[in-house]
Every structure is written in C-alpha cells, then in structure tokens.
What we know:
The complex is a heterodimer of chains A (183) and B (219).
Chain A: H1 6-31, H2 37-53, H3 63-81, H4 90-93, H5 102-120, H6 124-135, H7 140-147, H8 151-172
Chain B: H1 3-15, H2 20-39, H3 123-138, H4 142-154, H5 162-175, H6 179-192, H7 198-210
Amino acid sequence: MAAQTEREKAREERLARLVGDHFDFVWRIVRRMGVGPDDADDITQQVFMIATRKLDDISEGSERKFLYGTARRVTANARRSTRRRPEVDADVDTVATPDAGPEALTELSKAVSLLDRVLERLPPELGRVLVLAEIEELEVAEIAKLEELKLGTAASRLRRARRAFQSAVEALGVENPFASEEP
Amino acid sequence: MTERTTARLFRAARAEGPSCQLREQTLQAMLDSARTTDSNVRTPVIRRPVVVALTAVVAAAAFVALVSRHEPAPDRLPLAPEPLALAQASASAKATPSLPASTPSPVETHSASAPPARPHPSLADEAAALERIRRAIAAGDTAEAFRLLDQYRRGGASNRMSAEGTLLRIEALARSGRTAEARQVATDFIAANPGNPLSDRARSILASLSGGTDAGALP
C-alpha cells in the first residue's frame, strides 16, 4: 500500500479526535430523545459515519454543532420510520453503564426511566434545551449556538423549560421516585 | 419532587454512556471508510462500510455492529441485538427475535479493482490509548497522562497518530505547569507540520501559554 499522505494522516487524527471529544455527548443527546440504549448505539454510529463522509465540510471548531444537528435529524428520521417503543418496554429501561454494579444499575435505571417520562411531556424544543443545560451542563451561549437561537431566545426558552419540567413532575404526581414503584 | 431529587435524575442521565467497544468499533469503521475514499479518489463511490456484529449468547457483554447505509433517508433503523445490560433483573428475558447473528465479512467498497481495505490491526488500540491519555488530561491527572504517553511512545514508529500524541503531550505539559517545555514542543511541531490542522491546536495552546507577551516568538 502506498505511504499515507500527510493529509490522510491529518484526517485520521481528526476523526479520532471527533470520537474522543464528542462520542459520548452524541450518545447521551440521542438517548434523551426518547430512544433506548440499543437504538442510541445505532444512531450514534450513523451520525459519526455521516460526519466521516462530510468531514471536509466541517470547519474546525464547529464539530459539536454539526454532530448535534445530525443527531437530531437522524433520530427524527428513525423515530418516524420505526414504531416508537412504549415506556414500559424493558429495553428502554435498560441502562448502559459498563462500570456500575447491579444495585447501582437498578437505581440508575429507575432514575433515567423516570426522567424520560417527565421529558416526554415537554414540547421537544423545551426538552432539548433542558437536556443541554442540566445534563450536558452547557452555558446558555453554547446552547444558543447548538440550537441556532439568539442568546435571549435561548435564555427564555430555558426558563420556560425549567418551569415546564416542574409542571410535568407535578402532573405525573411523583413524590419520591426512589421509593418502589408500581408497574 | 425536591430540587435534590431532580438533580439526582440529571446526574443519573450523565452517568449513562456508550460502551468503549462501541466507541472503538465506530472509530475503526470511520477510519476504514476514510481510507477507502482516499484510495478510490477518482471513482465516485457510495461507501458502505460494514461494521461487524457479534452477538454474545450468554449475558456477558454484547458487541453491537450494524450495516450502516448512507442513503439520504434510511428506511429502517438498523436493529441491534440484546442490549448491553449488566443488571440482569431489569433485562428482558426475551431475546430480540428478528435479529440474525451476522458473521464477519470484509469491508466492502464499490470499486471492483481495489481489494477490501484491511483494518490496521493496532489502530483501534492506538485510538483507545490516545483516548485514555485525553481522559487523564481532562481529569487533571497529568502524572497518569505522562505515564500513558510514554507507554504510547514505546508503542513504536508504527504509531499512525503520533501527531495527535504530540498534541496531547503539549497539553499535558501545559497543564502540569511545564510551560517552557510545552512551548518548545509546540513550536517545533508547528515548524515541522505547517499544513497540519493540528498545528492550529498547537498554536492556540501556545497563545494561551504566552498570555500575549510572547507574540513575536511564534514562527
């Protein structure tokens, strides 16, 4: 095989960095869009393969924005074309954390399951900014960039999202999610 | 629900993540795809990397693989075998019936003349090693980062991502306060790799080290 060019090497390094910096982020984002862990695996892989194909179009520094937009699009397409899994589906309740022991996993499983139930009650654009703020812990400016909003719009949307979240919690009638739940 | 409980829910969501295997497999497929493009640059190709899936029969870790199609609107979501579920209590007892156990096959391309791209045997290992270094730096554990960097160096001249390794060394040096060394390695790197996009990263580290007083030292 011919020796690899500088350009090819640089591209491979960029791809490795893309994965290192953003893989988990994309997976988590997808996961909180009402997608179970298996489908999150699949969709995340698709997103990164798309990014590989379009790498030359992604300018330095805008990788996360590209990946976020692609993740949203691919997830939306996937959800339109497959039957949406009901909340009680065991797969959705499964939590993917390679490092946790069994008891911790059950607790985590309950927690994310409940979180998803609450998030599902929010309009999607509110749910997304809430996820970016509370789970990804991004600054409002970064949220505005990813969601392509003006800074003020992002800030007010986030305030609305937090209020909507609280309302959804009350509507679900959840007191202590970590007590045993009825099926 | 209390504020504290809400915080716990969000923390749980942060704790969830993809497996290392998934990450490494994805990177491998991406590199294969990029390499296939490079070798077929004259032929317009619809790239169809085939990522191999092995489904473990027992409740051990399951490796997820998919056929990833690049048509604009995928008409079906690639199916995955049973989930990577370590809490057996919550995992469903039923197997997912419609999934075939696929057997390994080489990466396919549309170019009839080129042989299928063979995955570099240690490239995924190398990528994984670099990621561990990245995480050590991100965690502020520069001692561990240097230890891993030395290990990576000893991996030898076959390292294909050595530029990335150098960048990580620069970052580790900068983070651990070895400013003069960081500056030196960064300057040398930029001089030796003018066209490399990684030089931009090196430059920005240099800029953050000098705090604006040394602007004239940059090549």
